[in-house]
Design brief:
single chain; about 80 residues; mainly beta; 5-stranded antiparallel beta sheet
């Protein structure tokens, strides 16, 4: 997956899919980009930087002020709204 760069202040809609045995669970969140980063988790993963699992993360601020961190993967779609 090639990660597109998003800038703070952009309004986006993130749609994520979670594959399951009986179909797909879909979630959607809209908000303003606070930051985009690649950050390591606490999980150990051989043959990677610092032997950690790294995830692409997009932090959003929703209209009601709630902060949401989206871990982006191959099942994520980010649509720029403005």
């Amino acid at each position: 997956m090639t990660l597109q760069m998003y800038t703070p202040g952009q309004n986006v809609k993130v749609t994520q899919q979670v594959p399951r045995l009986t179909g797909v669970m879909v979630t959607t969140v809209e908000g303003t980009v606070v930051k985009q980063e690649q950050a390591k988790t606490g999980s150990w993963y051989a043959h990677s930087k610092d032997h950690k699992l790294w995830l692409d993360r997009l932090t959003l601020k929703k209209a009601d002020g709630e902060i949401v961190v989206c871990n982006l993967d191959q099942y994520s779609n980010v649509e720029v709204l403005n």
